[in-house]
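In response to a reviewer's request, we include the raw inputs and outputs for one of the modeled complexes. The three entities were modeled together in a single run.
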Amino acid sequence: MQSGSNAFLEALRAIAPAAVPDWVLMVTAAVIGFAIALGLISVAALFFVWLERKVAGHIQCRYGPMYAGGWHGWAQSLADGVKLMLKEDLVPRDADRALFIFAPGLVLAAILGAMAAYPLAPAVFFGQFSLGVFFIVAMSSMTTIGVVMAGWASNSKWTTYGAMREAAQVVAYEIPLGLSLLVPVMAAGTLDLRAASAMQSGLWGMDWLIMPWNNPFMLPAGVLFLVAALAETKRAPFDLPEAESELVAGFMTEYSGIRWSFFFMEEYAAMFLMSAVGAVFFLGGFESPLTHLAAQIGGTELFVRDAAGTLAFDASAIPYQIVAGLTLLAKTVFGVFLMMWLRWTLPRVRIDQVMTMGYKYLTPLALLCVVGAAAWEAIKHALWS
Amino acid sequence: MSDTHTASGLGGDARVLRSGEREFTLDVRTQDMEINFGPQHPATHGVMRILIRADGELVTGAQPHLGYLHRCAEKIGESVEWLQYLPYTDRYDYLAAMNNNLGYSMAVEAVMGIAIPRRAELIRIICAELNRIGSHLIAVGTYGMDIGAFTPFLYMFREREWMMALFEKICGARLTYSYIRIGGLFNDAPPGWFEEVALFCDTFEAKWPEYYDLLIVNKIFVKRTANVGVIPGRVCLDFGLTGPILRGSGVDWDLRRDMPYSLYGEIWRDGAFQVPVARGEMGTVGDCWDRTWVRMREMQESIRIVRWCLAHIEEGPVMAEIPKILKVPKGEAYVGIENPRGELGHYVVSDGEKMAVRVRVRGPSFCNVAVLEDVLPGALVADAVAIIGSTDIVMGETDR
Amino acid sequence: MASSATATYVRNIWESVKTTLVGMRITGKYLLQKPITVQYPDERMPIPDRFRGIHYLEQEKCIECLACARACPIDCIEMEAIRHGKELEWISFTLDYQKCMFCELCVYPCPKDCIHMGTEYAFVSFDRSEFKHDLLSFKGMDRAARARMKEAEAKKAAKDAAKAKADAAKTAAKDKPAADKPAAEKPAPDAPKAGSDAPKAGQDKPDAGAAAPGAGGAG
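The model returned the following structure tokens for the whole complex.
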């Protein structure tokens, strides 16, 4: 079980003069963490927008962005971001001004808060979250309030349609999302992302929870989690609130410029987080053969407490941290890529069919998986321990 | 929002039941929403406005408003010469321009009473059927986009590009061809063209299962289109619907077989093609899925017709002998052909002059639009998009 | 009854999963293939021979019969030339591309087969007046035409002179005693107007080369 407090805090404690009180260091660490999280979301959103356009392009036998920045248009999202910032800030005259302006902020704040539980590396994280995944799911559900607020405040029939559908859809899929996550949580025995990742380190880093020898109900639970995550993040085939809604862009119709980009950042950040949760609980998180190798050649803890109780910085642990962090990132990006692939393959599901799927198919199946997985675990523990 | 609520109050409407319980009723009156679909459509059907009255998600009334693309084509027919009208015919159903040229040319040739050389007829049919494939590719592709599947549209456009390249080689234009003219064709096919058409047929047949698997039998697509927008056969006949809509409702009628024109009678007797009629495979007969299925199958049948024509191609002239300054003798004729969207009819009246007295066009989309008023009520708003897309309306043909 | 509901339920799940995977295989296949896009303007599509692009005119062959202008459904062709006997002195031959719909109806009626549609399709301008595109490659007359015209004029002048001489001789013979004989000489044929002689550099030079034994007056 990984222990140790926030890496930023420990680093600050190590370098700060003794006269500085601890609470100042804590606040500074929190601010640094917040800045990094915000940077991470922004970069992630930029990268995923570019990736989406390239994946969409290549699936459709075309290139996607090629021009901005030279090599395969890597600077396209940057250029788009600059353009969006320069756009006119439009608030419709009949819209509820306060709510209209507040909604994208709420949406982004919620997802930024959820990001706090994402561990960058085994020893580099924003805070200890024993409630890890529960916190992430709860915080990302708050974005729904922002979406409904946006749809209502826009004062348009179409946006209201989109907002109502969004509310119905998200509420319906919370249940299978939670239930399908229960399966790996049961197997891992913890809600904490770092701890769950650590317990998958056996077998040269390949003892992932989704492997059939761990629990045969894990794969169906993983698929259910993927479907529920798609519905939660409003991605195709469940993108009714956003794309169709009879016309332009559903609840986002009246938004333009930087406010619209907040919704998009939230969408890609939510995809990133859901994918990260899936990567940690199903695909092994930090663990992979490379990580195992890195753990052999150096240390694993950045800050080690020696016999006397003083904290020392162990620089040999850096390769392990980097490899572990990159492994989780790679698995997350793969998950996001999978979501994009599905988007460009499947048509859209109608709202009543979405509800049917959620309540009549996913929830019972998820329950079945939970019961089955619990029985399996019980039998396993009874027989082998 | 235009809802009005009148809650008559919890106290006033209580009834006492026999068992002693009190039953409360709430008198809530709501107003149906009136929504404008268009004229700017997200889906490429052109500029059309449908006024929809909806009770929440349920559509209770629909009224199409047309005329946004009206360009006075029929009136222009009275003030330009016979041959000069040909480019105008391209532009009503711009997705299947060869068929429009064919209809007009056949109507004028019927008035003139001339015979077309066989080679010209064969190339005409090849072009018309290739264009039918192109038109159906767009129809199904954009329908997929309406439903939310963006990728099949791109794949179908890849094939359509090839078809347009073929036409570019034969007449120089990609969309509005003005190639099939009164008396035959403007010019003969260039060397190597027939071989390339054969190559296209082979490649397209190999790609057809891909579209089928990716879109048509996809469970989500089936769920969106099966049992949606059912048009019974009786209603089709009442409204005068033709084309894939008619065959999608189970009515076995195809002008190429039942009122043969050009060489289609011969092709039919040779057993070279069949007429696909829907049987309600995935849901009810006459739903959106059936209409899409008919279009997909028609593409396959068109390939078979093209192959027959390639096999029977012969040398010869491609133009009948007609004077340079065309003066059509007095008379009138109506010729209806099977457009990808239905029966395209040209009614041509001539006075013996250089210009027509009347060119009346029976556009199939115009007649097909009428059914929307009947079939949309009772569907969900989300289904309205699916139904409109499945009727495959082109506004250029509706408004002319 | 219950078993058929269960069967439908299971079949729904199975079909959803199967069609999704089949679809993903198709899109995955194309994901890994090279795209078919032609990166315009760096790469261009090959243009077939019969492409209906911007027109070009074989000016020497044109006889200003206006067949193409009459054939155009939208009347976008206008031409202006001065006739010198059989030769033309071109002033303008414009095609209004704001109207042209590239229907190619102007190409077929030409009796001399001199107007064609080329392979140029990019016609961009900041100024509307540029769209009334002049198809002439040169204005005025070309050297061959000018030479022929001069030759024709010279021949005509010689013929007229000879005829006049014959006439005069005849009249003289007839009216020998008569006092005044209006030597009704036909005036020499019109020398080409000074304006049109305003030489485009290079047009006037090759009189020598054109083998016209320059009759005196016609310069």
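As requested, we also summarize the result in words. The interface with chain B takes residues 56, 59-62, 157, 160-161, 236-237, 239-240, 243-244, 246-248, 344-353 of chain A (CB under 8 Å). Chain A has a mean pLDDT of 85.
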